[in-house]
Amino acid sequence: MEGPTDLEPKGATWEGIAERIGELAPDLLVTNEMPFGPWVAADPQYDAARAAASVRIHEAGLDALAALGVPAIVSSRPVPAGARLANEAFALQDGRYTRLHHKQYFPEEPGYFEATWFHSAFDGFEVFEVGGIRLGVQLCTELMFNERARAYGRAGAELIVAPRASSASTRRWLTAG
Question: pTM for this one?
Fold first, then answer.
């Protein structure tokens, strides 16, 4: 799953993805950032109705992800957070939902007006055990802040997962990596 999409957690496209994941049988699946529905942060104006619709489609996506039968999944979704949304990274393990992280750094540029749409409702970059691996999460543009990666290493992380939603251009992402 790469880049902002209008992926629905049902239908032929999703069924094809689910079938391919089933064939690969991963122990850990990392999706892109907020994988379901339209990318709301493309719009420079916050719209409460579109925000609520994004929350709903991602809630439906939780069931679709759980139905994949993958032992551990890391993804993110929008959650209500006061007058805006929070971008919440989470793990699904054996049907159990664990909040891992709220995105802390938000771009504000064409296609990614995230500071308009999101804020963090919880601070911190913690290490969690997911699928038997000690991991940390850096959501998308948080990769640009490498001091967080160093802190994860000092805290014992074995893996940093980075769900992201970006265009096909890899220039800045190769630099961040």
Answer: 0.90
